[in-house]
Predict the 3D structure of the following.
Amino acid sequence: MTPLEHLNARRAIEGQLRFRANDQGLIFADIDNDFAQASLCLQGGHLVSWRPKDQARPVVWVSSAAKFAPGKSIRGGVPVCWPWFGPHETEAGFPAHGFARTVPWEVTDSCTLETGETEIALMLLETEQTRAQWPHRSRLEIMLSVGRSLKITLMTTNLDDHDFVIGEALHTYFEIGDIGEVRVTGLEGSEYLDKVDNFARKRQDGAIAFNGETDRVYVNTGAECAIEDARLKRRIRIAKSGSQSTVVWTPWAEKAEKMGDFGPGISGQGGWREMVCVESANALDNRVTVPAGQTHRLTVEYSVEPF
Ligand SMILES: O=P(O)(O)OC[C@H]1O[C@@H](O)[C@H](O)[C@@H](O)[C@@H]1O
């Protein structure tokens, strides 16, 4: 049996969940149940897409130019940023947003819930690279429940005899009609660090609308957010727990051009216009101390309603 056949024999669910490999050897879990379709790349524990069946367009966006290759991060989906967010504090050579999104994970469980939703759980596999960059004994797990809503829990367990500090994010790319026509609500009055203005501390006045590169870490907020999308006539709700930061990011034209993997988009105006990242995080002021022997959980739930 090949590893893929073995995985399908142990963890596939007839009519709901099947594993496949791409031409680069990456393995994906494809989920199709009564409520939604989704695809998850085992590398990075990275959900690549999610479309509830009552939606014509996916809710989790992935670039048509995304690379699906060993050791490469995927442009779109739900990258798992861990055990740090942004650049590493002291080591400039370590990858931005940590290593979790580019290393192999393994499937530890899969099942159908009583509701008919599909649940899948994965665990990050330690490698020489992860041990060199993270010299603490820990276990990182992700649990996804795919249905009309999408629930994700990221679980960090400290297996060491000392406390450690993590930064983390579920760096979700949401699909939208056009960046010029959406508003993000829920962060009114919150304090943020503005990454496009040298991390200046500011306070959010009203809902967020976009007319240029935006890269903000809202701190000390566990608030539910929503993306109001006038063009796709839908509101995406983002509820969370165990997360005190929310990152809002759009690269806009110039940065997207430089980054080079946003694709032309459905409109042909640039894929970057059809996504916005609203990331449930613990970053900067809100990095988390995980005491020895304890588990920290970050949970999100995404749902969609007419707008
Ligand atoms: O290109 P990456 O590493 O996936 O990061 C994308 C963006 O991720 C956001 O979370 C950061 O705030 C941005 O500064 C960054 O550009």
